[in-house]
Amino acid sequence: xxxxxxxxxxxxxxxxxxxxxxxxxxxxxxxxxxxxxxxxxxxxxxxxxxxxxxxxxxxxxxxxxxxxxxxxxxxxxxxxxxxxxxxxxxxxxxxxxxxxxxxxxxxxxxxxxxxxxxxxxxxxxxxxxxxxxxxxxxxxxxxxxxxxxxxxxxxxxxxxxxxxxxxxxxxxxxxxxxxxxxxxxxxxxxxxxxxxxxxxxxxxxxxxxxxxxxxxxxxxxxxxxxxxxxxxxxxxxxxxxxxxxxxxxxxxxxxxxxxxxxxxxxxxxxxxxxxxxxxxxxxxxxxxxxxxxxxxxxxxxxxxxxxxxxxxxxxxxxxxxxxxxxxxxxxxxxxxxxxxxxxxxxxxxxxxxxxxxxxxxxxxxxxxxxxxxxxxxxxxxxxxxxxxxxxxxxxxxxxxxxxxxxxxxxxxxxxxxxxxxxxxxxxxxxxxxxxxxxxxxxxxxxxxxxxxxxxxxxxx
Length: 460
Fold this sequence. Notes:
Blueprint: H1 4-14, E1 17-19, E2 31-33, H2 35-54, E3 59-62, E4 67-69, H3 70-75, H4 78-81, E5 83-88, E6 95-97, E7 119-122, E8 126-128, E9 138-141, H5 146-150, H6 153-160, E10 166-175, E11 190-200, H7 205-222, E12 230-234, E13 246-252, E14 266-275, H8 277-282, E15 287-289, E16 295-297, E17 307-309, E18 314-316, E19 319-326, H9 327-338, E20 339-345, E21 348-353, E22 364-368, H10 374-389, E23 394-396, H11 402-412, E24 416-420, H12 422-427, E25 429-434, E26 440-444, H13 445-456
Parallel strand pairs: 3-10, 22-23, 22-24
Antiparallel strand pairs: 1-2, 4-9, 5-6, 5-7, 8-9, 10-11, 11-19, 12-13, 13-14, 14-19, 15-16, 17-18, 20-21, 24-25, 25-26
């Protein structure tokens, strides 16, 4: 498998991902998605939305605001408890997350680190709204998309007339002031989440939890992740959030260069059984109960977030199953699994991203064999227009010889290259080259749209 260094090099070289604010020395924990990166990332989100919203009959979508009323995060528990343990090295002055630094690690100032006692560090970004910056106008950038779903539970329920079980899906930006962002886009301060809150009757939660674990694992495999690079990790009792009944993490082999196999894997997604904790926190008359036993009765909520069960004629608080994954980590996983270096002939190696066609940033590249022949160029542009009109992201490129153009498209994951040559002008056929096999065949221009659709498909 490829390591992160090669992926980082490819991302910068081919315009997938750049360092945030690079022009001014960068801003740690932020990354900008370039021309190809934004296409890949959008395709990952589209594949997730299709699989979880369009292909199911029990799901609704939502796009809640990034700025949250302070009370949302007070009653969710984030304001009081959303923190990581932080330590400083007295020698090198570097700051670390306490659970991620080895005290025996060598310090740049000699010997091992001389670490302070751990202290809590709140991860939320605080801001103010309105013209006066004071305590009465504090708001937060959301640290997760989940709370926007919970506080809209009644709105969605009333406007859609849904019956349990049903889910609400959301894709959006979240912000966490990570102590030590690292490993490229694996741990960052600004990121996107793809998150579902699936509401079920109490008593049906355990079965539903297992079904979601399998569904989410199968999504990664469907879109190209090799099964051997996926692992399921059942969190131990002492690792669970205090409100969680069970959590299964889906791990991916992000760090194949590490000698110990267990350390090669890390979380790409978590699937949690959150019971009725969140709706209890936010419902009118409910309360937040923290792990240390402190209780905060909710005296500010305006509505009860209950569900009326017609079978029992009672109002109840549903349980919640939460599959939550990061767009950035998922994108990184798909890139790592797709990356290949193949020896085409002795001394000639090609780099190819064997991305699932649904994820590929470009579906078809149209390449003129002779860029100084106006008839060939005009035909190539016509073909590009036909394929774009059919919904396929198609590009035209005449900036190099045909061999280099093929390799360029291989490296960015384009499934098909269409070459327009002199024979095209005679019989209206083109050469279609397959990315993975490098096999070529002649296809009539009139059949090209169906040819590509059959092999790429719109359904995935």
